[in-house]
Design a protein that fits this description.
about 15% strand, alpha/beta, 12 strands, six-stranded mixed β-sheet, disordered N terminus, six-stranded parallel β-sheet, about 325 residues
């Protein structure tokens, strides 16, 4: 830790005293209003008096994806605070997702949040929304395409950087041969995660493509790979629901491979505590939904834009067993 000079320490003490006096002096005005707004947001009531704008979120989620439930929780909380009518729709196929975005344009929504897992299918309709004067924020996937399509900002993790972090973590853990399980073909973010891992991993990494909507097939595919190659000592899944399936496949195959995963939920937190998983990569989906709504509100209210044309990163954060207990209560309430 760097040494703090006496003069700097004294100046800091003076500033702290002045700040403390200022807060006491305004406690009956600004401070009280801040407390009232916080209480209103907690109760699901608007903390602002801006118009009741309508924001739509359209994602590439499939049915029953717990990751997107967390994104929605964040978006809905911010919408309640910001007096926003929030609409959510989703489809795992790019063409159908684009149709849902078109429906939002036809409704003349005041703001639009989209994920760009399949950017080629989304390019025209997102550009159309921007030309129609609808501010767009992209979330989760498509950071490279977001600005080109005319979006205000992108909120999420850089998938390549996240993958590189996984490769480095596998090196630290002494892994030599790993399997990267891609559960949604055509998702550019998934390819970037595995490619990023391969870039920094000193060992050998192979991709395994599975049909994510069919969990028994996912388990049998992983199990077959582990049985066929006993040298595989790590399996990396790209979504929290697939981590538990990989654990079951490992047990059935009699493999000693470590199971690691992208994303966090209550089951992953428990599995980390139980040593069923080695580590998880958290990209904070609640924050993605919350900040996306807040950014659109700030744009409508105050012409603010965040990020300066660069993605606003919410991850990656590597989560280990020692972190799981502290985060478990947040995963149980659906915010991590």
């Amino acid at each position: 830790m760097a040494t703090v000079r006496t003069g700097v320490r004294a100046t800091g003490a003076v500033l702290a005293a002045v700040l403390g006096a200022t807060l006491v002096g305004c406690s009956s005005t600004g401070g009280k209003r801040a407390e009232e707004r916080a209480a209103q947001a907690t109760e699901g009531r608007a903390a602002v008096n801006t118009p009741r704008w309508t924001f739509a979120m359209v994602t590439h989620s499939g049915d029953g994806d717990t990751f997107w439930d967390i994104v929605q929780n964040g978006a809905q909380q911010a919408a309640a605070k910001d007096n926003i009518k929030f609409l959510y729709s989703h489809h795992k196929e790019g063409q159908q997702q684009a149709q849902l975005v078109q429906a939002a344009i036809d409704q003349k929504v005041d703001g639009l949040i989209v994920s760009l897992a399949k950017p080629d299918a989304m390019k025209d309709v997102v550009t159309k929304a921007v030309k129609a004067g609808i501010p767009v924020v992209t979330v989760n996937s498509g950071s490279a395409e977001s600005k080109k399509f005319g979006a205000l900002s992108h909120i999420g993790q850089d998938e390549t950087i996240a993958g590189e972090a996984v490769g480095e973590e596998l090196n630290k853990r002494g892994r030599k041969k790993a399997l990267c399980v891609l559960h949604e073909q055509g998702n550019v973010g998934h390819e970037q995660r595995c490619d990023g891992t391969r870039k920094t991993f000193d060992g050998e990494l192979k991709n395994l493509y599975v049909e994510g909507t069919n969990m028994p097939e996912v388990q049998s595919s992983i199990e077959a790979k582990l049985q066929a190659d006993q040298d595989i000592d790590a399996v990396v899944t790209l979504g929290a629901p697939f981590a538990d399936t990989a654990v079951k496949a490992k047990e059935q195959a009699g493999s000693k491979a470590e199971i690691d995963t992208f994303d966090l939920n209550a089951k992953v937190a428990q599995s980390l505590k139980d040593d069923d998983l080695g580590f998880a990569v958290d990209q904070q989906p609640y924050l993605q939904g919350y900040e996306a709504v807040d950014l659109l509100w700030l744009k409508k209210y105050n012409a603010d834009v965040l990020g300066g044309g660069k993605p606003v990163l919410t991850g990656p954060e590597i989560i280990h067993k020692k972190d799981a207990s502290a985060l478990e209560r947040y995963t149980k309430r659906g915010t991590r």
